[in-house]
Write a structure and sequence with these properties.
Layout (H helix, E strand, L loop, with lengths): L1 H14 L2 H28 L5 H69 L12 H7 L2 H4 L1 H4 L3 H57 L1 H7 L3 H11 L4 H16 L4 E7 L1 H6 L4 H21 L4 H12 L5 E8 L5 E9 L4 E9 L37 H8 L8 H4 L4 H6 L17 H32 L21 E8 L1 H6 L4 H5 L8 E9 L2 E9 L9 E8 L1 E4 L4 H11 L14 H18 L33 E3 L4 E3 L2
Antiparallel strand pairs: 1-2, 2-3, 3-4, 5-6, 6-7, 7-8, 8-9, 10-11
Helix pairs in contact: 1-3, 2-3, 10-17, 20-21
Length: 653
């Protein structure tokens, strides 16, 4: 009976709509809820006359419960059927997915096989065959077979390979013939070497006999030969410097002489054979062991020894002497620091006449600052080799500038003369000396060095006059100024960069970057009557190619600077902006004194064109002696500071 009922209920599930069962379930629940509420109400009244009605409603409730149970069974049957259908569908999906994976694997396998076929390379592809046109042009028809090969690419490739084989056989025969000729030539070279070796003693005897003739004709070939023999022991950067400087001296500059100084034997010891160096090392190690048994060096002594070893110079150095027309000589001594792989230079000035003693010119010919900024921003205070900083950290060297007085300045132009270049963007592990780099910098550097020496000597002479209150104006520059200039230079002195920075009226120059610690700084005082013009000068080391920069402060009745007085600003412009008018004859060594003379002239114009206070009685302190077309002009009341030499009058710019 259970199986028949279950089967009928399963059939009923298939035939019946679930939504109707849901409606029946909702109606049954409502009826059941209503009957329960009525039974509860009748029981609460407690009358016995309702017992029959209560029993009737109880029977109806039981029938509704039976309906709910049936609906529950039907729901469970539907759930089971749904799960079975889902499981069957899932199995079908899994079977299809497995079939898809099998197909994808087969596709991947086929793709790999296709790729292998496409990437297959035959051995003949590694051979660099001649072009097809050249093959048909040079190969004989018995090999090329154009009637067949031009149609079939496979036959064409085989024919090209045959032609390549024929060519290689022919080249192999030529190679054997060339080897035979090489052996023959080598034998001839050996015979000539023997002849030349026997010729050398004869030539030495001839050179020795020609020494008196060389001295008489001032042609020291033997001395040059010795120099070149010593040059063989120079390190590569110094060798490049020596060769290029000697070549430039012989070809372009007879007043430049180059020589080699130092201990040749020590330089030779640096290039000993490996066996000899190993023996020396073993001996030195034995000596060190004996010394270490006697004493144990402290950490400080070890660091000092490491610093000395790191900063060690090569035993040989190159000396250059640049002579000028006035007889002055610039001595340059170039050294090579072997462990740091950089070049340094020391300078010394020699003059044939006595240099005027001047307090303000103390640093002009100083070896420490003479060659500063020969090229822009090259002050030589730090090493140009980026690798040196890591070496310094190992031995406790903070800055290379502490050792410059002992070792010399490592200017960048010195490295260029030695053919050394240290790129900052892409540092190279090894830096070699380049002859072409040295040759490209040689001529310009020699000219700059000679110009620097001449300008410093000219400044030295000028400062001696300025300290005595005399502004020296050459005859070539007299036409730039009027005949009579009343204002005069009272004081000229040198100051430091720190003193220059704290001067109030120099702030705009310092902020603009026109005054740097490597520059030379001076103060001057120009007076006329009660007026005092205070002058601060910043002079670039590249004087006279770069003119000095002037800052002014006029102390008369009140303090006037370029910020408070437009005319003081115009006076600064006369010497700073229009300085090229004051350069004088080339190379312009007189520009400083001409600027000072222009300031004296401008101060006269400023004072003489100043309006007089009528409330003050008596003669005018500064009577107008200069001829001016207009005293003032414009809303700023600018004065005529421009001097017109041909006619001798002043006008506005």
């Amino acid at each position: 009976m259970t199986e028949i009922r279950g089967y009928s209920e399963e059939v009923e599930v298939d035939m019946k709509d679930p939504r109707k069962d849901y409606e029946l379930y909702r109606v049954t629940c409502d009826e059941l809820q209503r009957l329960m509420a009525e039974i509860h109400e009748m029981k609460s009244r407690g009358a016995r006359e309702y017992a029959a009605e209560i029993e009737n409603r109880r029977i109806q409730s039981c029938s509704h419960f039976m309906t709910l149970k049936k609906l529950n069974r039907l729901a469970h049957i539907r759930l089971k059927k749904g799960r079975d259908q889902t499981h069957e569908a899932k199995q079908k999906v899994d079977a299809l997915h497995l079939q898809l994976q099998n197909l994808l694997y087969e596709v991947m396998h086929l793709q790999k096989e296709i790729t292998k076929c496409l990437e297959f390379k035959s051995k003949h592809e590694e051979i660099d065959l001649v072009s097809v046109d050249e093959f048909y042009r040079e190969a004989p028809t018995t090999i090329s077979k154009p009637n067949t090969t031009k149609i079939d690419s496979h036959q064409q490739t085989l024919a090209r390979l045959d032609w390549e084989l024929e060519q290689r056989k022919r080249l192999a025969l030529q190679y054997k013939e060339s080897l035979a000729n090489k052996d023959k030539i080598l034998k001839e070279i050996e015979i000539k070497k023997e002849y030349l070796s026997s010729l050398q003693p004869r030539l030495q005897n001839i050179m020795q006999a020609s020494l008196p003739v060389q001295e008489y004709l001032a042609m020291p070939h033997d001395q040059l030969h010795k120099q070149y023999e010593v040059a063989r022991h120079l390190p590569p950067p110094l060798y490049v410097l020596f060769v290029q400087a000697s070549a430039y001296s012989q070809a372009c500059d007879k007043k430049l002489s180059v020589s080699i100084e130092g201990k040749v034997e020590e330089a030779k010891a640096l290039f000993k054979r490996p066996e000899e160096s190993q023996d020396d090392e073993s001996d030195s190690e034995a000596e060190e062991e004996q010394t270490t048994k006697r004493r144990r060096p402290t950490v400080g002594l070890q660091l000092d020894d490491k610093r000395k070893e790191m900063l060690k110079n090569h035993p040989l150095s190159v000396c250059m002497e640049l002579r000028c027309k006035d007889g002055s000589i610039l001595h340059l001594f170039f050294y090579y620091l072997m462990n740091l792989n950089i070049l340094t230079v020391k300078a010394r000035v020699g003059t044939t006449v006595d240099v005027y003693i001047s307090v303000s010119a103390g640093d002009l010919l100083s070896p420490h600052s003479l060659l500063n900024c020969l090229y822009p921003n090259d002050d030589g205070m730090k090493t140009p080799n980026p690798a040196n900083q890591y070496q310094f950290d190992k031995v406790g060297i903070l800055t290379f500038s502490d050792y410059i007085g002992e070792l010399g300045h490592p200017y960048i132009w010195v490295q260029n003369l030695g053919g050394l270049h240290f790129p900052k963007d892409h540092p190279e592990p090894t830096v070699t000396a380049d002859n072409s780099l040295s040759a490209s910098y040689m001529e310009r550097t020699i000219k700059l060095l000679r110009l620097r020496l001449q300008s410093r000597l000219a400044l030295h002479r000028q400062f001696a006059s300025l300290e005595h209150g005399v502004v020296p104006v050459s005859s070539d520059s007299q036409h730039l100024f009027p005949v009579k200039i009343v204002s005069r230079l009272v004081r000229w002195s040198t100051i430091t960069y720190e003193d220059f920075v704290v001067i109030p009226f120099t702030k705009h120059i310092v902020d603009a970057g026109l005054a740097r610690p490597v520059d030379l700084f001076f103060r001057a005082l120009i007076e006329r009557g009660t007026a005092k013009l205070h002058v601060a000068v910043a002079m670039n080391p590249g004087y006279s190619s770069i003119p000095p920069v002037f800052c002014l402060c006029l102390d008369w009745k009140s303090e006037r600077t370029s910020k408070t007085d437009d005319n003081v600003k115009a006076m600064e412009g006369e010497v700073n902006v229009h300085c090229r008018e004051l350069q004088g004859p080339k190379p312009g060594h007189q520009i400083l004194t001409n600027q000072l003379q222009r300031l004296c002239m401008c101060l006269d114009v400023y004072l003489e064109t100043e309006t007089r206070d009528n409330s003050v009685e008596g003669p005018k302190e500064f009577p107008q002696e200069k001829m001016c077309l207009r005293v003032v002009r414009g809303p700023n009341r600018l004065k005529p500071f421009k001097y017109n030499p041909p006619h001798g009058f002043f006008s506005h710019r």
